[in-house]
UniProtKB/TrEMBL annotation:
InterPro entries found in the cross-reference section: MIX23
Stretch forming the signal peptide: none
Family: Belongs to the MIX23 family.
Pfam families the record matches: MIX23
Source organism (scientific name): Callorhinchus milii (Ghost shark)
GO cellular component terms listed in the entry, alphabetical order: mitochondrial intermembrane space
Protein name from the UniProt record: Protein MIX23
Length: 144
């Protein structure tokens, strides 16, 4: 199960959220994936659960890292824009359009920062489910 390799558009928040949603498909489908790939005790001999859990672990880890980097990159870009707009605003306090742009970008930045919290919840849920189903089949290194 591979995560979509989409690029985040940091300027359009609705597109940003849509791409994140697509990138989170592996997390949204983890219960189904585990139910269809990890055997019950009666079918244990037919599927290599250790290999399946290892592959799922690697896919989850990669998806989480990719999303976190993408979100943080967008936050950094938006933060730089906010800083630039603040500097321009300080030079021209009467410019209402500049103030509106600054406020819009600050809101945009806050929304992106909140996605890091959403990401943490999504990741925690996925790892909990993974550990419940795979703990007897695969023990990843302690780097998680």
């Amino acid at each position: 199960m591979a995560a979509p390799s989409e690029e985040l558009n940091c300027e359009d928040f609705s597109e940003f959220q849509e791409v994140l949603k697509m990138m989170r498909q592996i997390d949204d489908r983890i219960v189904h994936e585990l139910n269809t790939t990890i055997p019950t005790a009666s079918f244990a001999g037919k599927i290599d659960a250790t290999q399946t859990c290892k592959q799922l672990y690697e896919a989850l880890k990669q998806a989480h890292n990719t999303r976190e980097k993408a979100i943080k990159s967008c936050i950094n870009q938006s933060s730089a824009v906010v800083t630039k707009l603040r500097e321009e605003r300080n030079k021209n306090m009467d410019n209402v359009t500049l103030l509106k742009c600054l406020r819009k970008e600050q809101t945009h930045l806050k929304l992106m920062q909140s996605e890091l919290n959403v990401e943490e919840v999504v990741n925690d849920r996925s790892w909990k489910i993974f550990n419940e189903r795979c703990r007897i089949h695969y023990k990843p290194s302690k780097s998680l």
